[in-house]
Amino acid sequence: MGMRRKTLARKVTVNGLGLHTGEWVNVFLHPAQEGEGIVFYVRDGRRVVHIPALTPFVADTRRRVVLAKDGVSVQTVEHLLAACFGIGITDLVVEVKGAELPIGDGSAQLWVDAFKEASIVPLNEPAPIFSPAKTVTVQDGNALITVAPNDRFTATVTFVTDHPLVGVQTATFDEETDDFVTAIAPARTFGFWEEVEALLTQGLAKGGSLENALVVFPDRYSSPLRFPDELARHKLLDLMGDLTLLGRRWKARVTARASGHSLHHRLCQTLWHQVAQEEKG
Fold first, then answer.
1. Partners of 137 in the beta sheet?
2. How many Cβ atoms are within 10 Å of 143's Cβ, its own excluded?
3. Which residues carry out catalysis?
């Protein structure tokens, strides 16, 4: 029997600062019904809008992922979704009082700890699986992501920069041999010092600090690296979060180079149409 769907055993609360809004937010993670998927319950005045964590509801991919429905949105969902992907949670109600999920220390550790506190329970139904029949490639200039058939999920991400301190970093993950909790979840979000002013001009990173992001200065990092390839590992974390938006577990070999949220979303849009056609057929 394949992997079963999973949810939480009990409700758990997560509080913290939003990286881009700079606002304090309260999040309540609830067990979900079998087959419900991952759904955000976002309060907007007196109403609560249910936003599924699925590709059609992606509204923005600039520097973070924003989900929206009926004029209501929730942003920076990728680290929570990466934790769901890495640990195998398929059904989860995320009640949000705020416009953005808390950033924690910039990694997925905040969500991993919350899942441990709540405990994870298997459900009866098998988890839906995405397994490509052929290789699919999406490209934008030098950025590239390829999905190929495989008997399990593996991913290789290459982060490319001409920054002398960083250069080119490559990180890999194999679900059979690697542990998401120790190898990927602790990798922190990062930014280059020269980008900070531009981000603030765009109305982003209002809650950013040296406590919730790794800053790359011209000659040093803002704090010691957790891994020699921490930047590439965080890019892999983001990729896993973005792939969760297909609404399925993955059996595929994913290779990405110089990619980001926007290209990941384009890939999922392509695959979403393929999956929909297969289900109709």
1. 146
2. 16
3. 261
How buried is 124 (Cβ within 10 angstroms: 0-12 exposed, 13-18 middle, 19+ buried)? Answer: exposed
**Average of per-residue pLDDT across 127-135:** 95
Please state, in angstroms and rounded to a whole number, the distance separating the CA atoms of residues 63 and 186. 19
The Cα–Cα gap between 145 and 266 comes to 10
pLDDT in tens, 35-44: 999 999 998 8
Sign of the torsion formed by the C-alpha atoms of 78, 70, 130 and 141: negative
Cα 222 vs. chain centroid, distance in angstroms? 23
Can you give the pTM of this predicted structure? 0.94
Domains of the chain, by residue range, sit at 4-126, 129-280
User: In the 8-state DSSP scheme, what is residue 185?
Assistant: T
Q: State the first-to-last Cα distance of the chain, in angstroms, to the nearest integer.
A: 24
What architecture does CATH give domain 4-126? 2-Layer Sandwich (3.30)
Residues 6+ apart with CB under 8 A from 217: 193
- In the sheet that 58-60 helps form, which strands lie side by side, from edge to edge? 58-60, 66-69, 72-75
CATH topology of domain 129-280: lpxc deacetylase, domain 1 (3.30.1700)
